[in-house]
Amino acid sequence: MNCKQGDLALVIRSNSANIGKFVTCLELLPAGSCNACVEDGPLWRIDRELEWDSTLGKFPGYLVPDWALMPIRPSPERRPSEEANVHSENGHGR
């Protein structure tokens, strides 16, 4: 699973003009929950409409497969004590 509920995500895989668009993952739907979709795996209900290609043709929708997304999350901030541990583990003591 790439994303979590509430994540801002970047569309990184698509067979239409969606690559590079940002979406918010609102609700995780189980695989097979969309009859018009031929995508395998879980789907996310998202906050904007995208157009996806399928064997049935192009269709607009608010669903995107998890495999097509890369979550955008801030990197965790290190506390000063963690910084000291990193330096001592690397042989760069203070």
Description:
The protein has one domain. 11% of the residues lie in helices and 39% in strands. The chain contains one helix and five strands. It has one helix at residues 80-89; strands at 8-11, 22-29, 43-54, 57-65, 69-72. A five-stranded antiparallel beta sheet has the order 4-3-2-1-5, with no helix packed on it. Strand 3 and strand 4 form a beta hairpin. The protein is elongated. The N and C termini lie far apart (40 Å).
Q: What share of the residues lie within helices?
A: 10-25%
Sheet having the most strands? 5 strands, antiparallel
Structural class: mainly beta
How large, in whole angstroms, is the Cα Rg? Answer: 19 Å
Ends: how far apart? 40 Å
What order do the SSEs take from the amino end to the carboxyl end, as H and E? EEEEEH
Unreliable parts: none
Strands of the widest sheet, in order across it, are 4-3-2-1-5
Count of DSSP-assigned helices: 1
Strand content: 35-45%
Structure characteristics:
39% strand; 5-stranded antiparallel beta sheet; mainly beta; 1 helix; 94 residues
Summarize the structure.
Strands 4-3-2-1-5 form a five-stranded antiparallel β-sheet, with no helix packed on it. The chain has one helix and five strands.
